[in-house]
Structure formats: C-alpha cells, structure tokens
C-alpha cells in the first residue's frame, strides 16, 4: 500500500494558485492523518487546498474509521466513495512515493516519474463541525503486482478527472490507467518512522 509520499519541491505556478497555503512546508514523509496539499476545481478553475489525509464524509460518526485509500476497482460502488467519485474529485501533487518490498525484511524504495511532480487521483470531502468546515482526502490506488500504488494521471487525464462534466464512462476508464514507467531506488530505513520528516528520508541504502 502507498502509505507514504513526499512533497518538498513545487513550481511557482503551483504556489500561486488560489488557496495555496501561505505556510506550506516541504514534507519528505507524509502519512495518513497528516495535512496534505490537494488540487480541485472550484467554479471550473484550479484551486489548491489543505486537507486531512483520511476521508471524512459529513455522515461519518467515527472519525477513527476515516479511510486514507480508495480502491480504483470498487470506487464507483462503495457507499463511502461513490458520491465523492461523481462530484468531488481532486489530485494530490507529489515528488514521489515510498514502497516497501521484501519477504523477511522489507526495504523502502523511493519511486519518482519523468517530471518533477506526480499527480495522484484522489477524492475530497468537507466535514462540518460547528462553524468550521474541515476538508479531507483519500488517495485512489490500483493493483501493481502484489502491491498497491497511487493512480497516476498525466496532464490530459488530470483535466478530465477534475472536470465536473466528464462523463461517468470516461471516469471509469481513467480508473484503468496503467502505471507509467517509474524510477526507483532503495533507501536506508530512516523513512520507516512515520514521525521522521526530513531530507534524510531519501538516504540511499
């Protein structure tokens, strides 16, 4: 499962989007439960926002059960994700993500793409609490051999994913997008600690 990723470098065009958090800090080890940056359409225009990684629909009573991941294979059927899939789609920008492999002793790997930023398909929700409205997200994942990886979208696919008028059939086809070629390198075990968030997370093995 893609339980961690990093966003420590971004473009000026991303930083100048409406809603981009003024205090956005670089992160090398984002984990479920953290506040993460996400991108969505507001009035047909691209906006940035910050939300909790763990989806909290307005009807959810037990926030400890907020899912951080949504399986692409069942996204359109699951009550937890069905409405958000149709109406509240977003993207998680990232410089790369982590994967743990191995039988007896799992080793962390760092995976990146050809471009400086990857974009993961995701869903967002708003949870009202008094006079506050809290935003949250879930990452969409797909099968990758015996693992699960984020659903990665290219620029044209990102536009279709975010657009409010994209037909459901096209959205379902996006869920079948194969993982593009990725670069990878094996790392030391510093990133294993979800509370450790520093450039040393990327220390090679």
From TrEMBL:
The keyword Flavoprotein does not apply. GO terms for molecular function: lyase activity; peptidase activity; single-stranded DNA binding. The keyword Protease applies. One of its GO terms (biological process) is proteolysis. This is Abasic site processing protein. It is an enzyme of class 3 (hydrolase). InterPro entries: SRAP, SRAP-like. Its EC number is 3.4.-.-. It comes from the Bacteria. It comes from Aquipseudomonas guryensis. Belongs to the SOS response-associated peptidase family. Keywords: Covalent protein-DNA linkage, DNA damage, DNA-binding, Hydrolase, Lyase, Protease. Pfam families: SRAP.
């Amino acid at each position: 499962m893609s339980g961690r990723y990093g966003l420590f470098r971004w473009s000026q065009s991303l930083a100048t989007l409406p809603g981009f958090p003024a205090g956005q800090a670089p992160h090398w080890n984002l984990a479920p439960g953290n506040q993460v940056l996400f991108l969505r359409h507001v009035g047909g225009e691209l906006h940035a926002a910050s939300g909790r990684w763990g989806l909290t629909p307005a009807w959810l009573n037990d926030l400890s059960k907020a899912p951080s991941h949504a399986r692409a294979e069942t996204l359109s059927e699951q009550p937890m994700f069905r409405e958000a899939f149709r109406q509240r789609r977003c993207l998680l920008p990232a410089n790369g993500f982590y994967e743990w492999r191995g039988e007896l002793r799992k080793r962390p790997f760092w995976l990146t793409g050809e471009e400086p930023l990857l974009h993961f398909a995701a869903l967002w929700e708003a949870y009202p609490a008094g006079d506050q409205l809290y935003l949250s997200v879930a990452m969409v994942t797909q099968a990758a051999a015996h693992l699960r990886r984020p659903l990665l979208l290219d620029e044209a696919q990102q536009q279709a994913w975010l657009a409010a008028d994209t037909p459901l059939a096209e959205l379902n086809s996006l869920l079948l997008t194969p993982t593009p070629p990725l670069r990878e390198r094996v790392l030391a075990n510093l990133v294993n600690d979800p509370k450790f968030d520093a450039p040393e997370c990327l220390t090679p093995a």
